[in-house]
Amino acid sequence: MFDTDQRPTHAPADHPALPTEKIGVLLANLGTPDNYDYWSMRRYLNEFLSDKRVIDYPSWKWQPLLQLVILSKRPFTSGAAYKSIWNHTAGESPLMTITKAQTARIAEAAEQRYGDRVMVDFCMRYGNPSTRSKLRAMIEAGCRRILFFPLYPHYAGATSATANDAFFRALMNEKWQPAARTVPAYFDQPAYIDALAQSVERAYAGLDRRPDILVCSYHGVPIRYLTEGDPYHCQCQKTTRLLKQRLGWQDTDIVTTFQSRFGPEEWLQPYTVEEVARLAQQGKKNIAICAPAFSADCIETLEEINEEIRDSFVEAGGEDFTYIPCLNDDAAHIAALAEVIDQNLQGWLS
User: Fold this and answer.
1) Could you give phi then psi for residue 259, rounded to 5 degrees?
2) What is the C-alpha separation between 145 and 348, in angstroms, rounded?
3) Between 3.60.10.10, 3.30.365.10, 3.30.1330.200, 3.40.50.1400, what CATH number should domain 190-323 receive?
């Protein structure tokens, strides 16, 4: 438990009590709609697709198309997709459920290591709880130093950078800003790679027949982002290479692909939905697929991979399709995240 508020030493008797100073660790994930109805989906999609980091077309060109066409239709289809994976018992999306579980377990690890000196919470870049509201709560709780941790193993302008943007904008509203740090990408951290490898090994051990190939499907971005300096593509390729080395596999045992293409531009290739069909047509009838760029299962994994991409594989003649879940709140994943946090708190805690 955190210490109660107290009057500063040597302060006058009428000085207001202040919370004991703490360090905050604010985890951040992409976000989720509050529900899967039309208006909840429209609010969420409008915030997401209006982000210049996500869609960087000029507003005069993009906003009329978004407001008049896309947001008239997409909330229905996206809402149906969310409904198919929704955690109806908790009344929330799986991403929200998993992020809460991750936060609780990281908080437990922090308490064991740091006692009551560190406060752990989470926010969402889009939707609720907002970055601004959680930052405000941490400051009110006495956090004078805050470590902001976007839960993306790989850096991309459309993920890590926009999460950091929201954090910095929230700081602009504070009269007394806390000291702040952001956590860099951890795509090549040995503990993260080991957690990935353990998840693959467990999945393979539970199968009657070894898959012909493992597909590492990463969220895609326009290929233009790579040429403009975004390191995401290179970091994804390195994760696959390190995972292959950790597993002791050959090049033919694993492949890197990219999913979730949106709009008319050329995106990073090969596209997962096309590659799994090509693999099936080449005789690889038994495949496994994982999503190393996602720290938690979400609409892109539970619906896109496990439904749409699976269908593409089966329709092309594939037989056995194994989806390996994201690391979520797996113990090895939590340990890896806690290690990253510990590295980035150096100098703030004795």
Assistant:
1) -120, 180
2) 8
3) 3.40.50.1400
Task: Give Dmax over CA atoms of the chain in angstroms.
Answer: 80
Task: List pLDDT tens digits, range 10-60.
Answer: 656 665 666 789 999 999 999 999 999 999 999 999 999 999 999 999 999
Q: Alpha-carbon distance 312 to 272, whole Å?
A: 9
Whether this prediction's pTM lies above 0.90 is answered by yes
pLDDT, position 312: 98
Among candidates 186, 205, 146, which has minimal Cα distance to 21? 146
Residue 7 CA to its chain's centroid (Å):
40
Q: Residue 86 and residue 329: Cα distance in Å, rounded?
A: 18
Cα R_g (the chain), whole angstroms: 22
| 3-state DSSP assignment of residue 133 | helix
Asked if residue 126 lies in contact with residue 44, where contact means CB atoms within 8 angstroms, the answer is: yes
**C-beta separation of 268 from 228 below 8 A:** no
CA pair distance 272, 220, nearest whole angstrom: 9
Asked if residues 259 and 309 have their Cβ atoms less than 8 Å apart, the reply is yes
Q: Length of the chain in residues, anyone?
A: 350
Digit-coded pLDDT (tens) for 94-129: 999 999 999 999 999 999 999 999 999 999 999 999
Angle at the Cα of 171 from the Cα atoms of 345 and 109, rounded to 5 degrees: 30
Q: Where are the domains of the chain?
A: 34-85, 190-323
Q: How far apart, in whole angstroms, are the C-alpha atoms of residue 63 and residue 85?
A: 29
Q: How far apart are CA 300 and CA 345, in angstroms?
A: 32
Reference 218, options 182, 180, 176, 187; nearest CA is 187
